[in-house]
Amino acid sequence: MRMLPETAQSLESPAPIAADTASHPGRATRSLRPKILPILLVLIAGFPFVLNTLTFPLLKPLLALGVSFSIVSGINAVIYEVILTVAILAIVRYWERLPLRSIGLAWPNLIDIGLGLGLLVLMFLADDLTLRFILPLLTSPAAASQGVTAIDRPQVNLLEQMPTWLSLLIAIGAGISEELWARGYGIERLQAVTRSTFVAGAVMLGLDLLMHVPFWGFRYTVIIAPSQLLLLGMYLWQHRLAPGILAHTLMDAARPILISAMMLFATALPNPTATGWTYMQRGNYDVATIAFDAALKRNPKDTSALQGRADAYWYKGNYAQSVQDLTTVVKLEPTNERAWWNRANSYYAMHDYPRALADANKAVALAPDDGGTYSLRSDIEQAMGKPDEAANDRDKATSIEAPDSAKLQDAAALAANRGEYNEAIADVTRAISIDPHNRLLLLFREMVYAEDGQFLLAADDLKTFFASKPNDPLMLVLDSDLSYRQHDYGTAVALISRAISADRENSGFYARRATFYLKAGKSNLARADLRHVLQTTPKDAEDYNRQAWILATCPLDDIRNGARAIQLATQACKLYGWKNAQYLDTLAAAYAELGDFKTAISWEKKAIAALSPMNTKDREDMRERLGLYQAGHPYRDTDPES
Question: Is the full-model pTM beyond 0.85?
Fold first, then answer.
């Protein structure tokens, strides 16, 4: 880290404030009279959203130039870290006129390095224990098996798309700036104010964890709490920042450093292409990509590696990069049916339907006996508004391949989206007969029955599915929805209230009950439930979106707050990289509530473009809202959450 000349001098000489500062530099603050204003400014500046509101708009032109959102976000993070670091150092030296030793900053020695590496090992062990024992308490066992990505998938996706050099810059910046803010400056100055090490440590630990919430969410902060405690303990023991900065930086940089090391290892493998496919089968797409990269460095025309890397990109959501690799494959091997099929699938995921259809036609021409090619073309044609062609291709696929339950369920979903409920019910019933152990098919058929108004049959499927656990909250919610659809609002309220008793932390249940209360004419009870939802601290993007939707569209005038709705909806959109159609739809409704219909129309169009091709119901609803905004009217929602 570069220092100003006078700063370097202050690191080399003992602080003049107290006699024991040479061994414990931070303890100098016990005898100083702290200035409150710089302390408050530093503590506030430590929260990224404070500076991001100023810096991110300046970087938006980069998005227009084609720079990816992940890179722009990463550059913004580095700028925040640099500004925070420089601000703290400047405040200490030129405002408080104190040596940098007063915040624990001194040149590292061998003991610092040893303590930092030992701390790093303890932090890795703490993370392992929290992932094993704490994460299962915060999410489902199936999700917990995926590690920390189970609770921060959108954020991890954003980081995965960053180049290694940018990830390393962020890690270095975070290690320095966060330790300066949360440990060195924060603890030493609060200790001087409160005269209590415990209070200073507890406050800064809480603020440090809270600082991570806007991006990562509350569950992630629970996961990292043990590591943060270790960093706090090290600083309170040594009152030197060097060990914590070293451990923190290496901890954050572990992933990009590991990827670089694996790249070197993969390059030395005798057959990196085969290694890549092995990791593809295991579902480890990061390692697979590294192996395929190594193979292509040896031979840029290795079509097997190109196809493997394209598959890995597709699974990671990097469809444009998948298309790029597959374009190389079809140039090298024009008769490679699988490459044409995969590129059609990538274009389809990008909503580029004309190119997807052209590639699907090529795949069909090359493999006319492959039912899968007709199935994909059917999906594309359905998305392009060609239901007859889609049905014809689906029939061809069925005639070529014996139907399995998954394909029948897909066919049922297409039929249900077209409003052909009888056909959908017939397909899913056949799927149940083929795979009677797949109980989720019962829930699917229940939803189709409910859409078709066959509530008794829907209730039968519901009872069969939940026969062993009739008081399951999900069972009660779905049952309440059936009552709501039949306008039996009293029963709907009673059922959802039982679900709330079983799971009081689910704010979505309260929002649903508020809708039932509104339909029953009990606006005061609805108002109480809505305020409960709005007072709940958001844990994830879905919570942000739910609150924003209520604030933007609630029919009760005293509940709506367009400005706050925009803030919450923007946060939800950021967490999902501005790709979630429902969250964009909410942002549009929030702007409409404020009367900014031009912006609302823009976001609503983006929401429609981001929808899944099969989601015709939501597309119709969003187009209806778009018409309202074009006519200068906001949207009011009176239906429960889907």
Answer: no
